[in-house]
Design brief:
Chain lengths: ~300, ~1100
């Protein structure tokens, strides 16, 4: 029996004609797995589909060999899910809300529930704030609370959708540590467009663009092919930027332009590739394929 | 400047677009239009109108429906106006908008106007839907002649007078609260308060006859004024009449439009940008976090690393239930609502009892509880829909909703726990009213009942509200958009109320969301009602569970709303148990409904209006031709009654019967079967159809025969609306007509409305019967030498009664399982319930006192009355049956010792005594003009007695009450009015005749009236017709004035120091379904007058406003 999450040829088209998933395939083993993609790439659709919140048009999803689409309730017993944003649940303390999630996840015995909640509160560092109203939590506390809710019941699959957006560096770090701990026992699918998070945390990743996986592998697998192919140069403000630029970044002296080429263009220096560069190369490939196909 | 104007214009149009987007508007428009068509095609009220040719889309319907729907609108508008500022917040754009370089006040005003336009269009849906009425004609659902011209002008008038001011005013009020509270809770609280104010106006001030002025001013919807005016319109005016802008309506519009706009202006002036941008301070923000961990890990026993999924969902359901319940109850809005509910209940209960227009009343349980139910029902209905809606949407918080959806808990856990919490808060609301009732009883009633309010609220009110809660649950389960779900829940609540008001569904157990009616009586208690009530409750609870099962099946879980996903989900929930719950509910509904049908329809007295009309038409076709004059000398009745098994056996022997056509016929009361008939000792065949029987007795044409009837009755029915079983183990209150057949033909069954006659293929000409072929007006058989014996057979409580009379056969008798209290007042014994001791003593004294008065006014000896009985509600009116004074519980037993209510009771007692005197020793059949003798004179006698014993103002107030009844009832007639002679026993005839007789008596003198009445009675005794007899005494002119076309006059007496007294009159004649003014400004001369004299127009007819006919004493 295969272990971890296997997604195969998943497609999903919305009623308005938008094809959000177009034959997506993923193999997510135990550990942290990154899912990168620009806004509108279909990440949230994929997350929701895996989390049984919506049905795909076709394809299959398996968790540890179990057919998820035909047994959504079985997946839910092993699932932790933190959506992209969670609001402030008004008038309820964190402890009360966490207790509620606990019994909805099967912890109906009070002693077991209390034990679980106490452990999780410690883990997400909210023990002292447990009696506070959730609506009073700061953004970071709310995210930690959210992951705490997702962790109830030691899920075998944890899906977190853009979890660190808007967090300050300290909170972000704290959050990463929690995810890292969890990934020792479970498959953690981390969807984000913050490439640095994936680079720091994940052994493997996929890049989703326009409903398709355009690249998969470890960060190193994606970076290595670019060695010696990336060059950069700082352009003064007002100076024309080459159209073939892979990335154009703001720089105190003007604009830092990165290009991909076999040999260094005039004035450019060789640059060591990062995962972010690999991500942009993957995006560029899709755009150029799209342009080509349009031309033909 | 141009740029800013365009910004505001854009804001206005954006607000309109936002309001119109989404399912709210199309759903409301479609739902209401469909509903209006249903009302126009089905409601009994509409059928009644049609009987006299009033089109179904007539103007008064436009006014009533348009204003009546406003309560629903308020809740929709609360959401709509709430979005004016909250929409930005939801989209997290409030800070961006807040710092925009435009005037904040201008921005809010532009959006307010945009929201007003949407609100106005929502308000227009209902009246505009009336324009669809022709569709019913084209489809053949309603006869085309009952569809009038499109009521454009009434709709326009309605829009101008009601909808537009209401939109501006109430919208301003709602938006002001949004700006102050920055939450949608504010406008919803205002909507609830508006409803409360409306209820106080309508239920207390209007229905309690306390003050129409106050009711109109307090009513934010304008419904009270619309109803008050249209109720008084004659039928013809109802077609295309315009509501008058009465002073109270102007004040009302000022209160509910101009003042709210002022509040809105002040709120805007004080509004600052930071007010909308800053977060609302959390109530618990300053609460310190505990220093120690909340959960002591070391105390957690048996720590388990994994959750337990098997067999634990029941516990999770209960945990969820308690969590939701505690969240709902531990909430300041809920607590405030309960406190307001309780306080208003106590205040309203006491105020209604003390200030009731026909009171003051004693708030005993049987009077108080139906009032509380009516008073609170609309409020409770919308509160339940609102709070249950909030509960259902509690988890709809960004992100949390998805997290709840992916928990492994089965959908049933989520649905059932919320539903149980919803049902529980419904019960909490219901019991708050019981608490109010206890306090009111403690303060104002001589008797206190702890149990009755609880039983009433739980068994009568709660099941209906559970249905409302279940509908709300279903709406929120099915509809994703919270605004639309909320609107639909409120709309169903509104439809439930209108169904009830318009009798759209006339079979009461089938009414959804409306409490089942019970006539609670201290004499009979709950016993007669408990079986039917529990069965109806069972249906309502089963229906609620069925809706819950549907909600379970259709529950929206996850983000996928495609049909495929929903179908998949439904399949999964079938297995969870939703289908089982639905199946069990349906089986319960089917079983209990069949029981109800058996008890109420097959064995009971329930019949729908259309069925009744159909049966009456068939009855006429079968029996009208068999009417013939008959005579009878008297006879003997022998009855054996077993209250425990609810059975009757009887033999009725008739002596010297003869019929001109050789047919012996009569009508059978409910539940009684004519087993055998013997004529001169020989058995004869009985022909029975449509509750009428006939026996061919050819031998009795020329020679009188002796006939014996053998009757049998077994009652296994349950009481229907507004009735009480006369035979029950909790007591027997029997009148002759309950058990014996009424001989002759019952003219009241003839259909008189031309359209109905046409519909049921009856001849255009209404059959004209010989008076002596008809049933007697009272009792069951004409005057003769009658005797009766009644045996009650009950273990340990068998009794025996005998009686004898020489008048129409009309006796009454009572049996009690336990001996009731008894008061001896001279020769009169009054039997009553122990809780009514003080009232019984007063009534006994009143009977004695009024006997003397009636005897004096009529100058006739009164028949002897030996017994008076306290009778449960729903068993007729105050009457005298031979020697028994019949005192059903009604306002007569509910009124306090002093006040106008007591004068009304005295009027009823005097009227009953006068009737018994007028009917004594003669036979009165349903003949032309009988309304004057049977109802008019008794009421006139009662007025004369009031004049002698009460103050002048009370006497005039009683006349005004009768005048109001005439105007109202003539506006609601279902049979075209031609002349008084042909008016039969319509409700308006008695009061009309009493007031007209008062007028005539003032002209000819009371003693002349006495002599004339005596003469008429003598003539009737000798078989003469009433109108002929009257003409002999009063002449043609007076006869024509009294029995011809209805007349009305309004005389006004004005006094001034310089010119003395001036009198002017206006006169109306009834023609083509309305009062037609024939003369106005007639000045009349007054020769001799004294202070306090009441001046009448000598033309005759009834006086519309007696209060301004009095000559005031000069200081």
């Amino acid at each position: 029996m295969s272990q971890g999450l296997i997604v195969n040829k998943l497609t999903k088209q919305y009623a308005n004609g938008v094809k959000a998933l177009n034959g997506v395939g993923l193999n997510v083993p135990r550990g942290l797995y990154g899912l990168l993609g620009p806004n509108g790439a279909g990440k949230s659709t994929l997350m929701r589909t895996i989390a049984t919140l919506q049905m795909p048009d076709s394809g299959s999803i398996e968790l540890d060999g179990m057919d998820v689409l035909n047994n959504p309730e079985k997946l839910r017993k092993n699932l932790g899910y933190l959506p992209q944003t969670i609001g402030a649940y008004p008038g309820v303390s964190a402890l009360s809300l966490m207790s509620r999630f606990a019994w909805l996840k099967g912890f109906t015995e009070k002693s077991a529930r209390d034990y679980e909640i106490a452990q999780i509160l410690e883990r997400v560092n909210l023990t002292d704030a447990a009696n506070r109203n959730v609506a009073e939590y700061s953004g970071g506390m709310l995210r930690r609370f959210g992951i705490g809710l997702a962790l109830i019941g030691e899920p075998r699959l944890l899906i977190v959708d853009e979890p660190t957006a808007g967090l300050d560096p300290m909170e972000r770090n704290r959050f990463h540590r929690v995810l890292s701990d969890v990934s020792e026992d479970a498959a953690v699918l981390l969807s984000t467009h913050i490439v640095e998070d994936v680079e720091n945390l994940c052994d493997d990743l996929s890049i989703l663009v326009a409903g398709q996986i355009v690249a998969s592998g470890s960060p190193k697998d994606l970076i290595t092919p670019l060695d010696g192919q990336l060059f950069s140069k700082v352009f003064a403000k007002g100076e024309p930027v080459p159209k073939s630029a892979l990335r154009v970044l703001a720089n105190p002296k003007g604009l830092l332009v990165i290009v991909r080429a076999r040999t260094a263009p005039n004035g450019f220096k060789v640059r060591s590739a990062s995962l972010e560069d690999a991500y942009h190369v993957a995006l560029e490939n899709v755009v150029s394929v799209d342009s080509d196909s349009r031309v033909t | 400047m141009t740029m800013s104007l365009s910004v505001y214009w854009n804001e206005l149009t954006n607000e309109i677009n936002a309001g119109m987007r989404g399912p709210l508007f199309p759903l409301s428009a479609f739902g209401l239009a469909l509903y209006i068509l249903l009302v126009l095609s089905n409601a009994d009220y509409m059928r009644d109108m049609g009987a006299i040719g009033i089109p179904r889309n007539s103007s008064h319907v436009v006014y009533l429906l348009s204003t009546g729907m406003s309560l629903w609108l308020f809740f929709i508008w609360a959401w709509l106006f709430g979005q004016v500022t909250l929409r930005d917040k939801t989209a997290a754009l409030h800070e961006v908008i807040g710092c925009a370089p435009v005037s904040l006040k201008g921005l809010i005003v532009a959006r307010y106007l945009g929201a007003c336009i949407v609100a106005f269009m929502l308000g227009l849906i209902m009246p505009s839907a009336m324009l669809l009425a022709p569709v019913l004609g084209w489809l053949g659902i309603v006869p085309e002649e009952l569809i009038g011209q499109a009521p454009f002008l009434p709709i326009l008038w309605c829009a101008l007078v009601f909808i537009l001011p209401m939109t501006l005013g109430i919208g301003a009020l709602l938006l002001s609260t949004v700006l102050i509270f920055r939450s949608v809770a504010g406008p919803f609280a205002v909507a609830a308060l508006l409803m409360l104010v409306w209820m106080i106006g309508l239920i207390i001030f209007k229905n309690g006859d306390i003050s129409i002025f106050a009711a109109t001013v307090l009513d934010p919807t304008g419904f009270s004024e619309a109803e008050f005016q249209t109720d008084r319109w004659p039928p013809a005016r109802k077609i295309d009449g315009f509501l008058e802008l009465s002073p109270q309506l102007w004040i009302n519009r000022f209160v509910w439009c101009i003042i709210p706009l002022g509040i809105f202006t002040i709120t805007l002036m004080r509004l600052k940008r930071e007010h909308l941008v800053l977060e609302q301070a959390a109530k618990q923000a300053l609460k310190e976090s505990p220093a120690k961990p909340i959960i002591q890990i070391e105390n957690a026993l048996s720590p388990l690393k994994r959750p337990i999924f098997d067999n634990s969902w029941l516990r999770a359901t209960s945990q969820e239930y308690f969590w939701h319940l505690s969240r709902s109850l531990n909430n300041w809005v809920m607590r405030l609502s309960l406190i307001i509910l309780f306080a208003i209940g106590v205040g309203g209960g006491i105020f209604n009892a003390m200030e009731h227009g026909e009171g003051p009343m004693i708030p005993r349980a049987e009077f108080l509880l139906p009032f509380m139910s009516e008073f609170f029902f609309v409020f409770l209905l919308f509160m339940v829909a609102g709070f249950v809606g909030v509960l259902m949407r509690r988890d709809s918080q960004t992100g949390f909703d998805e997290m709840f959806d992916v928990t492994p808990a089965p959908t049933g856990v989520l649905v059932i726990s919320k539903a149980m919490a919803a049902f529980s808060i419904t019960i909490v609301f219901v019991l708050a009213s019981a608490l109010s009732a206890w306090v009111v009883m403690l303060i104002g009633s001589p008797s206190f009942s702890f149990v009755d309010p609880v039983i009433y609220q739980l068994l009568v009110v709660a099941p209906a509200l559970l249905e409302v809660a279940a509908i709300t649950i279903l709406m929120h389960a099915v509809i994703r958009n919270s605004g639309a779900a909320h609107a639909m829940s409120m709309m169903f609540g509104f439809i439930a109320i209108v169904n009830y008001e318009l009798n759209l569904v006339s079979f009461e157990p089938a009414l959804i969301g409306i409490p089942y009616s019970v006539l609670l009586s201290s004499m009979s208690g709950w016993t007669p009602w408990i079986a039917s009530l529990l069965t109806v409750d069972g249906i309502k609870v089963s229906f609620s569970l069925f809706l819950l099962a549907l909600a379970w099946l259709l529950w929206s879980r996850g983000t996928d709303s495609s049909l495929r996903a929903r179908f998949h989900a439904v399949l999964g929930r079938f297995r969870e148990g939703a289908a089982l719950l639905a199946a069990i509910s349906v089986v319960c509904i089917a079983v209990l409904s069949s029981l109800i049908v058996d008890k109420l329809i097959i064995h009971g007295q329930y019949i729908s209006l259309s069925e009744e009309l159909k049966a009456n038409a068939k009855w006429e076709k079968t029996w009208a031709s068999k009417a013939a004059t008959y005579e009878i000398a008297g006879g003997h009745v022998s009855l054996k009654i077993d209250p425990i098994s609810r059975t009757v056996k009887g033999e009725w022997s008739l002596r010297d019967f003869s019929a001109a056509n050789g047919v012996f016929t009569g009508s059978l009361p409910h539940g009684i079967e004519l087993v055998n008939v013997t004529v001169n000792g020989e058995y004869f065949e009985i022909d029975t159809a449509y509750d009428q029987f006939a026996v061919s007795v050819e031998d009795c044409r020329e020679v009188a025969c002796d006939i014996e009837l053998f009757i049998d009755g077994k009652f296994s029915d349950w009481p229907t609306l507004e009735s009480q079983p006369w035979l029950h183990h909790s007591g027997v209150w029997m009148r002759a007509r309950d058990v014996l057949s009424r001989l002759g033909i019952d003219k009241e069954r003839i259909l008189t409305a031309p359209l109905e006659r046409e519909k049921y293929v009856l001849s255009k000409n209404i059959p004209d019967f010989e008076a002596r072929s008809l049933s007697t007006l009272h009792g069951v058989a004409p005057a003769g030498n009658w005797s009766w014996e009644i045996r009650y057979i009950a273990p340990g409580n068998s009794t025996y009664e005998v009686g004898r009379s020489s008048t129409m056969l009309d006796f009454a008798s009572a049996w009690y399982p336990n001996e009731p209290e008894m008061i001896n007042n001279g020769d009169l014994k009054l039997y009553h319930h122990a809780s009514h001791q003080s009232t019984a003593m007063i009534i006994a004294e009143e009977i004695r006192e009024l006997q003397l008065c009636v005897e004096d006014v009529l100058n006739m000896p009164l028949p002897t009355i030996t017994k008076a009985v306290h009778v449960p509600r729903g068993l007729g009116d105050i009457r005298v049956y031979h020697d028994v004074f019949w005192l059903p519980e009604s306002s007569g037993w509910d009124v306090a010792e002093d006040g106008f209510g007591r004068q009304i009771r005295r009027q009823e007692i005097a009227s009953a005594l006068a009737k018994s005197t007028l009917f004594h020793g003669i036979s009165i059949n349903q003949q032309d003009g009988i309304g004057w003798y049977a109802h008019g004179i008794p009421l006139w006698v009662a007025l004369e007695c009031t004049k002698k014993s009460a103050s002048r103002s009370e006497w005039i107030a009683l006349q005004q009450r009768l005048s109001d009844i005439v105007i109202r009832e003539m506006g609601a007639v279902t049979t075209p009015i031609t002349t008084l002679a042909k008016a039969g026993n319509e409700k308006w005839v008695g009061p009309y005749m009493a007031l007209t007789t008062l007028n005539i008596a003032s002209q000819i003198g009371t003693s002349s009236m006495q002599k004339a009445i005596l003469q008429v009675k003598e003539n009737l005794k000798h078989g003469h017709f009433l109108i002929d007899s009257f003409e002999q005494s009063f002449g043609f002119e007076m006869t024509n004035a009294l029995f011809g076309v209805p007349r009305a006059s309004d005389t006004v007496v004005k006094q001034s120091n310089g010119t003395g007294v001036s009198i002017t009159s206006e006169r109306w004649l009834w023609a083509e379904n309305e009062w037609v003014r024939i003369e106005s400004g007639i000045e009349q001369a007054l020769t001799n007058h004294e202070a306090n004299d009441l001046i009448f127009d000598s033309w005759g007819g009834f006086e519309k406003t007696p209060a301004d006919n009095v000559i005031q004493p000069v200081d």
